[in-house]
Amino acid sequence: MLQAFNELAPFVVPLSILFGLLVGSFLNVVIYRVPVMMERSWTVFAKEHLGMQATEEELRPFNLIKPDSRCPKCESPVKPWQNIPVISYLLLRGRCGTCKTPISKRYPAIELLTALLFGIVAWRYGWSMVTLGGLLFTAMLVALTFIDADTQYLPDQLTLPLIWIGLLFNLNGAFVPLYSAVLGAFWGYMALWLLCYIYKLLTGKIGMGGGDFKLLAALGAWLGVGILPVLVFMSAFIGIIMAVIMKVAKGQQFAFGPSLAIAGWIIFIANDEVMALVRWWLNSSGF
Questions:
Q1: Which of 13, 86, 114, 274 has the most CB atoms within 10 Å of its CB?
Q2: Are residues 98 and 51 in the same domain?
């Protein structure tokens, strides 16, 4: 059995790209449905607390499996052949097969993005447990990035498992020693929590959501405590650039979660190069 897996090692990159297309298709479902699931659960809970009756629509099952995917306009079910990543979008010419309503280009874009990122992870780490963990890490970061960009939610359903999976991933030091992963999770959470607490004392305002604390804790669990200062600096730099672009383009603020996710993924892929650059800068600056 092990020999059969080893024979597939030369094909790890194309296999990961193909797998990324399939995962990207599923992530489209996660990105759309998880926020709706959260809002529905909040509504039902609030109505129960207030003694109000939830509507039939609010009580109807809505999760990652049910209801089946369908066109939001004509409600025609999506057939299996219409759900093939990228290919179905091209065959349908980007339109619903029944009512010809345009399908968002973001669906194939997320599928292609996930495939590309999976291929890079496989290229960087080869046929290894780090690659396997990296694919899961990447998929969850893609989902969190788009959910936060759309809704400014960072769901506990994703951030909390990401913390625990990161700790389990490093149980035997797959990426960093376990003590570094545990400290990374702790200080990742506390760093932003303390910053937000001090900001609230000074201004009376809440400057950041709790989901950002948990996401940085998750990144610390995966990448270790030593990388946190670099990660926060990179995230802030990316956030400033993206916030300026979004504000100029659409007059909107940009959530911080995507910046954390992007910086964390870059460090996961180029950890040695990032640390070498940090050491060079520290030596050059005299620190």
A1: 114
A2: yes
Contact 218, 141 (CB under 8 A): no
Query: Euclidean distance between the first and final Cα of the chain, in Å?
Result: 52
- Per the structure, how many domains does the chain have? 2
Structure tokens at 182: 């545990």
Residues spanned by the domain of 194? 128-287
User: pLDDT digit string (tens) for 24-43?
Assistant: 999 999 999 999 999 999 88
- Which residues lie across from 70 on neighbouring strands? 77
Domain stop point among 102, 126, 150: 126
Are 150 and 38 in a shared domain?
no
Rg of the Cα trace of the chain?
21
DSSP state of 28: H
Q: What is the mean pLDDT of the chain?
A: 86
Write the burial class of residue 49 (CB in 10 Å: 0-12 exposed, 13-18 middle, 19+ buried). Answer: exposed
Kindly state whether residues 146 and 267 are assigned to the same domain.
Answer: yes
Tokens of 4: 């059969």
Q: Helix or strand or coil: residue 77? A: strand
102 SS3 class? strand
Inter-residue contact 38 to 62 (CB < 8 Å): no
